[in-house]
């Protein structure tokens, strides 16, 4: 059986990766419809050995497709996902628009595949935030084994997490500064080249940023346990692709580092870097990969049931596009 698939945001960083990954993983696509705004309508994307023209979403007839992957921002999803769903199309949405609605499944296939069963509530499935996805793929086996009480996490997030504009801001500022010219930030609150910015998204009332609160809300929803305490600090770093996280997790019962490594060796979607001096990094190891890479696993010398680890993944792939395609695969395998 084949499915007609629309990709909304086809000219963007995540949308382009979605199209590549549908092809790489041989998803059973009948006809692919790449969609974006009128700005890039008429541009082409490569799929199945052909150039396909991007169409303006405003003119699209949703009854032609069974599945749609959305990554064009939350406002675009708020407008089009209900319309697509009304036409019988199942929407897998990469934005933050529906993630916290109680009747919308928020799914990481390696972590909570059963949540997908509720997709008919609104014909919409939400894909979690990139930072949450890689953290929970790595922590799920520990949670299953003894339970997680609290997570302290500091993220090191690449500029591709802000899409193609983030990539061009870092590239442009780097070139200008190396040529001795001053820079004016446009996308980020401060210069990102050769710098670190401890703010991703806007601030909320409690002093945490929205990006940080996404990690709190999504962790509790996905693991189905509102008692798990999560304390994040999210930092934008001058790296093009790949997010990294220093995670300090407090468990309900102690596990030693060897036990944790054994769990991670057998965990779906995880590659363990066992040798302490051979840790994963975004540039060498994560870019272009679909696995979540874990290194620096060690017991926390400051806490009796604490474990530290370093978690790296390609934010555009596993953090967004790959996870969405995996949700589509699960949907087709188990429900359609
Ligand atoms: P991007 O590179 O800036 O691409 C944005 C895409 O959205 C483009 O295809 C753009 O089309 C389209 N778009 C914008 N406004 C539109 C409108 N009014 N109607 C139709 N299409 C419109 O951004 P991105 O990184 O791919 O991110 C897209 C979404 O995925 C965001 O919601 C983001 O939060 C989420 N996300 C991104 C990541 C990541 O690592 N990058 C991870 C998780 C989630 P035009 O070319 O026509 O403007």
Keywords:
8 helices, 6-stranded parallel beta sheet, single chain, binds NADP nicotinamide-adenine-dinucleotide phosphate, 336 residues, 6-stranded mixed beta sheet
Short structural summary:
The protein is of the alpha/beta class and 336 residues long. It has helices spanning 13-24, 74-86, 130-146, 164-178, 210-223, 257-265, 282-286, 317-334, and strands at 3-8, 29-36, 44-47, 50-53, 55-56, 67-70, 90-93, 124-126, 148-157, 229-236, 243-251, 270-272, 292-299, 306-313.
Give an overview in words.
The structure is a single chain. By secondary structure, the protein is α/β, with parallel strands linked by helices. The chain contains eight helices and 14 strands. The strands form three sheets. The protein has a six-stranded parallel beta sheet with strand order 5-2-1-6-7-8, with helices on both faces. A six-stranded mixed beta sheet has the order 10-9-11-14-13-12. The radius of gyration is 20 Å and the shape is globular. 46% of the residues are buried. Bound molecules: NADP nicotinamide-adenine-dinucleotide phosphate. NADP nicotinamide-adenine-dinucleotide phosphate binds next to helix 1, helix 2, helix 4 and helix 8.
What's the multimeric state? single chain
Tell me the overall shape: globular
- The helical percent reads 25-40%
> Rg, please?
20 Å
Distance, first to last CA: 9 Å
Largest sheet: 6 strands, parallel
Which structural class matches the secondary elements? alpha/beta
Q: Could you spell the SSE succession in H and E letters?
A: EHEEEEEHEEHEHHEEHEHEEH
Number of strands: 14
Put simply, the count of helices is: 8
Q: Residue ranges: pLDDT <50 for 5 or more in a row?
A: none
Strand order of the largest sheet: 5-2-1-6-7-8
Identify every distinct bound molecule in the structure, by name, code or SMILES.
Answer: NADP nicotinamide-adenine-dinucleotide phosphate
Question: What is the average of the pLDDT values?
Answer: 98
**SS strand fraction:** 15-25%
């Amino acid at each position: 059986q084949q499915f007609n698939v629309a990709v909304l945001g086809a000219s963007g960083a995540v949308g382009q990766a979605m199209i590549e990954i549908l092809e790489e993983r041989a998803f059973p696509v009948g006809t692919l419809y790449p969609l974006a705004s009128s700005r890039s309508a008429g541009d082409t994307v490569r799929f199945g050995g052909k150039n396909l023209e991007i169409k303006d979403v405003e003119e699209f007839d949703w009854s032609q497709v069974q599945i749609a992957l959305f990554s064009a921002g939350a406002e675009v999803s708020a407008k089009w996902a209900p319309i697509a769903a009304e036409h019988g199309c199942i929407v897998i949405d990469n934005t933050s628009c529906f993630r916290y609605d109680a009747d919308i499944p928020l799914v990481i296939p390696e972590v909570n595949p059963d949540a997908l069963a509720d997709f008919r509530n609104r014909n919409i499935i939400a894909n979690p935030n990139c930072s949450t996805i890689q953290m929970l793929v790595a922590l799920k086996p520990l949670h299953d084994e003894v339970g997680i009480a609290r997570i302290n996490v500091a993220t090191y997030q690449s500029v591709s997490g802000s899409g193609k504009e983030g990539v061009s801001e870092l590239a442009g500022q780097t070139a200008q500064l190396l040529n001795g010219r001053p820079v004016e930030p446009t996308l980020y609150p401060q210069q990102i080249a050769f710098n670190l910015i401890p703010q991703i998204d806007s601030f909320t009332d409690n002093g945490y940023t929205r990006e940080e609160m996404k990690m709190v809300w999504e962790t509790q929803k996905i693991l189905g346990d509102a008692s798990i305490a999560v304390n994040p600090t999210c930092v934008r770093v001058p790296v093009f692709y790949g997010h990294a996280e220093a995670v300090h997790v407090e468990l309900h019962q102690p596990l030693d580092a060897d036990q944790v490594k054994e769990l991670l060796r057998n965990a779906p979607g995880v590659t363990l870097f066992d040798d302490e001096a051979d840790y994963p990094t975004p540039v060498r190891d994560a870019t272009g990969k679909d696995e979540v890479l874990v290194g620096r696993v060690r017991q926390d010398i400051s806490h009796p049931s604490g474990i530290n680890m370093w978690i790296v993944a390609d934010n555009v792939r596993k953090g967004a596009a790959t996870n969405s395609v995996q949700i589509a695969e699960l949907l087709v395998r188990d429900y359609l």
